[in-house]
Design brief:
With about 250 residues, the protein is an all-alpha fold. The chain has one domain. It has eleven helices and no strands. The chain is globular and about 60 Å long.
Length: about 250
């Protein structure tokens, strides 16, 4: 456990290397929630309190985008020859990939914490149990996304392929989800695809924990099961692929 904590500490320290990207992300979230969200909420009249629905979705979407950083860092380390150093450490591959997945989720959580705290205060949610439930849902999703990023990065071993696949996944995960619009008002094919999207369930579980109208959300029990399967699947796959592919061959 102490070795995993060391990996988490090391990855948390590396977060400061992305200052410009993080500042841009903060700016993006503030503009999306504070300006664009207010404008769109005046146009959407199919449901009450759409602004809160939209803002919660943007928060989850941003946590997804920050958690993906872990995969790009793996390529940076390969370019810098850092992989050889990692292989020389007295730590197992499983401890390394688990620590990196946990750190990826935690970095996403830390990055978004000021915005989440401000939003919860804005909507008047002060119940500690509700806040804890919401934060656990967010962290669980970010943890799974970090595992997904590691799995793809080490499995592909190609920065170009990783960029292409992440772009395709972004189109599916972000745009074909209920993050920004309820499933009940989507066209049939898009609504069906959103049912296979972990971002939909993460967003709805986050909303449910903050007492949003449940008739616009997925069943919270189903959402919880999907998220647990998601994070367990990709972290297990990440461990297996990391152990097999980390050394040997070229990184492109």
């Amino acid at each position: 456990m102490s070795k995993i904590l060391l990996v988490i500490e090391r990855d948390l320290r590396s977060l400061v290397r992305h200052k410009s990207i993080l500042i841009m992300r903060w700016f993006f979230v503030i503009v999306q929630i504070g300006i664009f969200g207010l404008a769109v909420s005046r146009l959407v009249v199919v449901m009450p309190n759409y602004y809160n629905y939209y803002a919660m979705g943007v928060i989850v979407m941003t946590m997804y985008s920050v958690a993906i950083f872990t995969g790009y860092e793996i390529y940076d380390e390969a370019d810098d020859g850092f992989v050889e150093y990692l292989l020389s450490l007295p730590i197992t591959r499983r401890e390394l990939v688990l620590g990196r997945s946990l750190a990826g989720g935690l970095r996403s959580f830390i990055f978004m914490s000021p915005i989440i705290a401000g939003f919860l205060f804005f909507i008047g949610v002060l119940d500690p149990l509700k806040i804890l439930t919401a934060l656990v849902a967010l962290y669980g999703f970010a943890f799974g996304v970090s595992g997904l990023s590691i799995t793809l990065a080490v499995g592909l071993r190609s920065g170009d392929k990783f960029d292409i696949i992440m772009g395709a996944l972004d189109a599916f995960i972000v745009r074909l989800s209920t993050a920004l619009y309820p499933q009940a008002f989507m066209p049939g094919p898009i609504a069906a695809m959103s049912m296979f999207n972990p971002l939909s369930y993460a967003s709805d579980l986050f909303r449910w924990s903050l007492n949003f109208d449940i008739k616009y959300l997925a069943n919270p029990a189903v959402a919880l099961i999907v998220l647990v399967i998601f994070l367990m699947t990709f972290n297990f796959a990440g461990v297996m692929i990391y152990e097999r592919n980390l050394e040997g061959g070229n990184w492109r």
